[in-house]
Amino acid sequence: MASHLSTRAPAGSKRLDEAAWIAAAFEALATEGMAGVRVERLAATLGVTKGSFYWHFKDREALVEAVLERWATGRIAAIAEQTHDHGGQAQARRALLGLLDIYARTPNRKGLGVELAIRGLAPGHIAAKRAVARVDAARLGKVGALFARLGKSPAEADARALLFYAFLFGQSLMGGGRRLAAAKRAAAKIVAD
What we know:
Blueprint: H1 18-32, H2 39-46, H3 50-56, H4 60-82, H5 89-105, H6 109-121, H7 126-149, H8 154-173, H9 178-191
């Protein structure tokens, strides 16, 4: 955070915290990609001046890094919650089917937009690359552990976890239609087996 001489906001100004800027950045990221995460645009969206931004962040890169950290932490917490120790084989299978249901039933367009924007940034951005690697490791590790509980060897559990996530993200990018919906349901059963 940037340091300042005064902790008082100017009279009549809107007082925002760091979380408000991060939330606005997520909204922009979901709809416009990383190009939408611009200080001037976010300030206009929030109805404040750019000075408010610099109260909380040194520069745009500091905001991007805060967004990446919030995204990675949130995704890792979500997969941990969705796959917490379910005990035996029946519970592991229910957890896999539950994950498929969460991601296939009603695609989260906002979440997918954020995911794609961050993944698009990762090849040329060290912090994004690290955030994606952390999230992927957590997702594949947790889902791989579920497949291991189903009796799969470590190598097969890891391979199935990769296919599981490839299916989840791939099917969410595809269109709809009755025939495709039926194929997605059948594929979900195969992937979770």
